[in-house]
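Now for our target.
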Amino acid sequence: MLTRLRRGLTYANVMATIAVFLALGGASYAAFKLGPNTVGSKNIIDGQVHRADIGKNAVDSSKVGDGKLLAKDFAKGQLPVSAANSNDPSPDVSLPAELTALSTSITTRSPSRIIATASANVKGDAGSDVYCFLQIGRGPNFRRISRGAYADFAGAGPNQDAALPIVGTAIEPAGTYTVRIECGHSAGNASYTAGNLAVIAVP
């Protein structure tokens, strides 16, 4: 029996058997002997790391690129949102050359993109026009952050209505800011009747 077994042994058979044991032993070593920080990006197949593979609190601000998160990535209540102040001034006010129609304030704790959306309801007689835009500022210093929205009441008849949508954005350092709608007219009789203003700050 031993003689027959020795005859069956060849160099190729022996080397193949040794290779199998080395391969199995290497896989076991890799599975159970990996040290800390030994697996890098090049060892991971693209798209194969899932949420369950990431430890709790393993991803913090230092690991997220600036400007890469969107408002929808935050839980409800994490972003500061200001409310509109609809009593500044009372609705249905005649427009002079220019008037602060509506304003609200927001406080940010870090540099943020401040986004404002507004709507101004206005009316005017035939031949009048109205324009509105958004401003942001602190104290006496304000600057424009939106394009103007315009209504041209060229048709016949008094008290023609128009709703002017306005959107503006600004990047500001931490602080408390006032955002306001400015409205005015250059011809005829016109007034601001109502409106709304919502402001959100995205760190």
Remarks:
- The chain has two helices and ten strands.
- Residues 83-88 have pLDDT under 50 and may be disordered.
